[in-house]
Amino acid sequence: MVIGILLLSFIATALQRITGLGFAMLTAPFAVVALGTHQGIMLTTVLAVIASLLMLPGMWRDIDWRRVAWIGIPAAVSVPPAAWIGSMIDTAVVYLLVGALVIVGLGVALLMQGTTKPVTGRSAKILTGFGAGAGSVLAGIGGPAMTIYGVVARWPVASFAASLQPIWVIVCTVVLISRNTIMGSTIPDMSPWVWLLVATGIAAGMWTGQRSLGKVNDRVVFGIVVALAMTGAVLSLVTGIMELR
Description:
Belongs to the 4-toluene sulfonate uptake permease (TSUP) (TC 2.A.102) family. This is Probable membrane transporter protein. It holds the Pfam family TauE. InterPro entries: TM_pro_TauE-like. There is one protein chain. The protein has helices spanning 2-19, 23-35, 37-59, 65-86, 91-113, 122-139, 143-153, 157-182, 192-212, 218-244. The chain is an all-alpha fold. It has one domain (2-244). Helix 1 packs parallel to helix 9 (192-212) and helix 5 runs antiparallel to helix 10. The radius of gyration is 16 Å and the shape is globular.
């Protein structure tokens, strides 16, 4: 299990350094299977905070702080009530709903991309924040909501990837507090050397992602973002189906 988490942390961090997201979407489904829903999401969230904090200094100049505020604050506000609702709903149903909504929402966003003007209003940012916050606390994946907004807003890739990092720090911090106090989730009790090993994987992934910057054009990067979001949605559906058993 430790080797699996190490490899996932490395791959997910490298992708997140390039695209701005992907860490939780790739890590959460596997962590949930290995550790159970509560501890799996908590572990994913802790690691996501570490990854984003490590990336912030190198991405600082590209951050769009206005968008961070309009998305990050609603996301943080949405987490506690979503956690309360999640504490009363069967986990399998949550995963199935999240997966289905993301697939539908992303499909609509892709259809809109070539037929409408960019959607950049405040209401879209606020709705994105609610979706990212709720998805993060309920299923450990807030990236798909951000991807949908990134598509319809035609957000430049460099700014998109950089701006997501402070948003994840804000959201994941509130998720950790809310899941612990409202849903009774706890962080897995792992030995210090395991945490050190995983942190090393995150650092190596960040270095690899940094080295890859500029070698892939923006259209390909955003294609990867969309693919990651769809992968997260499918994995959410699979996790929900497995939880039904």
